[in-house]
Specification:
Blueprint: H1 3-9, H2 14-30, H3 35-46, E1 51-53, H4 54-61, H5 65-77, E2 81-85, E3 92-96, H6 100-126, H7 131-167
Antiparallel strand pairs: 1-3, 2-3
Length: 172
């Protein structure tokens, strides 16, 4: 994809889009995501189609194809990106999942349930009369609380999104 197409499809000038990508990637890196994966994810998010090829990512981010490959491997493993064949070519296109954040938090919710169970078992093993047992039991209780709240949050998000869609002007 050439510069003019990038500028046109991303709704802003190339430099401003690049600043946004780097700023958001920096925030994701600060939160614990791998730096290159953060940059690739942010570039996909900022692309009009939410999909780019390896060559497009390398060009936009000024990184090597190997760096793109490593980042895509990570993003695929954590379920944030999928690979698709570019129609009519042998190239792969990397695509953000639909409802990415919903899916990500739903998977995190499943992790909370597993952690809660392990922590409950650990609290029993450590004993309710020990500081370690009480601390572990409280951590399990915290994850149980988060799990319960997450279901309500997701329900409210779906209702909010449906309401927004109903209010949006219909395209002809």
């Amino acid at each position: 994809m050439g510069e003019s197409e990038m500028t046109k499809t991303d709704g802003g000038d190339e430099e401003a889009v690049s600043r946004f990508v780097e700023r958001f990637a920096g925030e994701m890196t600060a939160a614990g995501m791998q730096r290159m994966a953060s940059r690739v994810f942010a570039a996909l998010l900022a692309s009009e189609t939410a999909s780019l090829t390896s060559a497009e990512l390398a060009e936009r981010l000024r990184i090597s194809p190997a760096a793109v490959s490593g980042a895509i491997g990570y993003l695929t493993r954590v379920g944030m990106v999928s690979r698709e064949r570019d129609p009519g070519t042998r190239r792969e296109r990397y695509v953000l999942h639909n409802e990415l954040w919903y899916e990500t938090f739903t998977r995190r919710d499943q992790v909370l349930v597993r952690w809660e169970k392990v922590l409950q078992d650990g609290a029993e093993t450590l004993g309710p009369d020990t500081a370690a047992g009480r601390r572990t039991a409280e951590t399990a209780e915290f994850f149980a609380f988060l799990h319960g709240e997450m279901a309500g949050i997701m329900d409210r998000w779906r209702a909010h999104k449906q309401g927004r869609a109903a209010e949006a002007p219909q395209e002809a």
